[in-house]
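User: tokens in, sequence out, please.
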């Protein structure tokens, strides 16, 4: 059991911090950047959880919204588990691969394969993609898109030093971004939200200035 009695130590006042093995590195070190980005993904999933929990369970007339409750059940369970897995991953990423303590809990192949199994289950309900999806939507959907993009940033940072980490960790993060994307689409579909699709250039709205002037004229 972890027991923390004090957070501030002063040890990082000069711009350095410790890896799990006790070695001191600059806070601008590539590995520390990776650990911080993993923490950022975890925090964004916390934002998704908050937005999902805010979805109203009942219709205005008082009747239950069964679909919303089912979305909540799946998202809260999946994202809650994912936050713990990301915490495990962050601890591992704070170690050189030859210095990982034996006691440390690591994401394994079963965890990675589970992401694919869940994506397959969600995809069974979805229509095939026929256009690019723009990263927007209601609270939970927009937050998921942001989490997905930061997960890709985490992956890019890991690739830059991939010889200094377990290949399975990189595989897991690659699948995680796809997992969030499919969960986003599944949540949109279950909630009855239309996905915002990319519009080819010739079909985009171009009369914004004229619209603004008309509004000003009618004030």
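Assistant: Sequence out:
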């Amino acid at each position: 059991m972890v027991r923390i009695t004090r957070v501030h130590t002063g040890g990082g006042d000069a711009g350095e911090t410790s890896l799990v093995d006790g070695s001191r590195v600059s806070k601008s070190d590539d590995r520390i950047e990776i650990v911080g980005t993993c923490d950022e993904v975890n925090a964004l999933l916390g934002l998704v959880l908050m937005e999902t929990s805010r979805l109203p369970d009942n219709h205005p007339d008082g009747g239950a919204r069964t679909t919303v409750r089912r979305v909540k059940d799946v998202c809260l369970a999946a994202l809650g588990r994912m936050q713990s897995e990301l915490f495990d991953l962050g601890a591992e990423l704070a170690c050189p691969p030859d210095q990982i303590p034996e006691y440390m809990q690591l994401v394994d192949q079963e965890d990675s394969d589970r992401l694919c199994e869940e994506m397959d289950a969600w995809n069974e309900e979805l229509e095939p993609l026929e256009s690019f999806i723009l990263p927007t939507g209601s609270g939970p959907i927009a937050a998921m898109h942001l989490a997905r993009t930061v997960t890709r940033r985490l992956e890019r940072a890991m690739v830059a030093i991939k010889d200094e980490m377990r290949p399975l960790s990189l595989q897991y993060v690659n699948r995680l971004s796809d997992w969030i994307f499919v969960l986003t689409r599944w949540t949109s579909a279950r909630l009855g939200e239309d996905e915002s699709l990319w519009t080819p250039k010739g079909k985009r709205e171009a009369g914004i200035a004229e619209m603004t002037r008309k509004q000003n004229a009618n004030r």
